[in-house]
Specification:
about 180 residues, mainly alpha
């Protein structure tokens, strides 16, 4: 980072933008026991229907909220924080989309957990951490790309996207009975 101000822009953007993730974590906690039960009973069609409903919910409800809060991030930042925090605006927009993707993909992680792939899930999150740290260094470091707080937000977006794609890949590979 370039200094404490850049850290502040990221923290403020993350604090506001990550509110969307609360929905995903709630769904993940609720769906895990349901998926476990449905997988044990081999009711894969029920899981496919639940995934379809969740995807529809995320696109019809959460995506418009994400879009509105991203497009209106200047209004949100000016209202909540004041004009002196205008550098938080792009960070908030990026983190909003990152939070949406995290929420969208969490259901696939819940399917893997429901099938008992806890170690695989842990490995995916460890890989996410390593990817996040390495991409953050490249995106933030002033002698590399030097994006500052925006670079950290972009790293989070890339990491969450990669994690979600890995979730989907492994659901296709190990829980192929679920149609997604």
């Amino acid at each position: 980072f370039y200094g404490s101000a850049e850290v502040g822009y990221y923290v403020l953007g993350f604090s506001i933008g990550s509110l969307i993730i609360m929905v995903g974590h709630s769904v993940g906690m609720v769906m895990f026991p349901t998926f476990s039960k449905e997988i044990a009973n081999k009711n894969y069609n029920n899981i496919s229907r639940m995934v379809e409903k969740f995807e529809r919910f995320t696109w019809l409800f959460l995506f418009p909220v994400t879009l509105i809060t991203s497009v209106g991030s200047d209004i949100i930042v000016n209202f909540l924080l004041g004009k002196e925090y205008f550098k938080t605006i792009p960070v908030l927009s990026i983190i909003n989309f990152s939070s949406f993707l995290t929420t969208y993909f969490l259901i696939y992680g819940a399917i893997l957990n429901g099938k008992g792939f806890f170690k695989l899930n842990a490995k995916i999150y460890l890989f996410k951490l390593l990817f996040f740290i390495s991409s953050a260094i490249i995106l933030i470091h002033p002698q590399l790309l030097g994006f500052g707080s925006k670079g950290l937000a972009i790293s989070l977006l890339f990491s969450n996207t990669m994690t979600g794609l890995l979730f989907i890949f492994f659901v296709h590979k190990f829980v192929a009975e679920v149609y997604i």
